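REQUEST ID: PR-0412
SUBMITTED BY: lab tech R.K.
PRIORITY: routine
TASK: structure prediction, single protein chain
INPUT:
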Amino acid sequence: MTEKGRRYDLDWLRVISILAVYIHHILMPFNGDKFHIMNSESSKVLDDIMVFFEQFRLPLLFLISGAGTMFAFSKRTWFQFLKERSSRLIIPLFFGVLFIVPPQTYYEHINNYNSYIDVYRNGSFEVNHLWFIENLFIMSILVIPLILVLRSPKSDTIITLLETITSKKYGILLWVIPLIVIIIFLKKIYQSDSKDITNLSSTFYYGYFFVSGMLFTSSKYIWDHLKSHRKFNFIAFLISAILFYVYYLLPSEFISPYLSISSRWNVWYAVCALVSWTLVTTILGYSQIWFNKKSTLLKKCNEAIYPFYILHQTVIIILGYYIIQLNVSILLKIVLLVFISFPLIIIIYRLLIYPFKIPRILFGMKKKDNL
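STATUS: complete
OUTPUT:
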């Protein structure tokens, strides 16, 4: 994005989305779900809250990434785009797998290792939280033909049709129907919750948001419609949120006589998709009013957020391993983890990454003279 046409609202949403991922990983050791490190006690209330916010943090991030992909391509040929994606995604991915993720593996299986070097001796290399970078690179490459079509007159008919649909108050809401169909159909085949690119139920679900971001960015009018219909989308979100929690908290014996287990899962997937779509589209509408402003803070945050993402889970797991062993409440452990991990990540970024050329490359940052 050029400075003149820069979408500051999307920049802010990118920062907010990554911070939401950070908070999610801060809370994971305490909600009873499987994580790399787990507290001896867990909070059901925390789990009930987190299950709701899980529905939008990644969809929003993928939609913003789809929009960003279109902006990145707008200034480049397809070969320049491929080169840029490789340097910004593949280099940090390989560096992360080799040096950032291994400490997570060590602390997760610390009783199985005699020393940290055993992680390398055993070839225990994993992607972990960097799966997002891997998926983003693969998606970016696969959609190059679609980008070329969207940049040509061949797409005029479909873009005009989408603009007509979204001009209606309920039009943007209709986009959720294909999303529901996709997730219900693919979950019958790919039931795993894995984020691996080969798990097509996950890949196509997030891919739908990614491509939607591309389509939104191909037309100024669709963004205008998101803004003008934001109140309707907000009401749709509130209704979706109520449906979500009613169904989530409803005892299974109330509905098991009427719906098979397969049908109950289908309803759950539909409700989750509805919450995801309505909340994301609501945020996109209101953010154009609240966040579309240039600021020095945004520039600094936007520059730092990618290295922050790469570093955050490793720092959380290392610190969290020791914090969860303290004989204090869950709330105090969470507070300690936030107030120690956040400044530590910023210090590492400012002292070891930001000033130097090679670390900037390894963490996917631009050269200083390009900022």
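NOTES: The chain has 19 helices and no strands.
REVIEWED BY: pending
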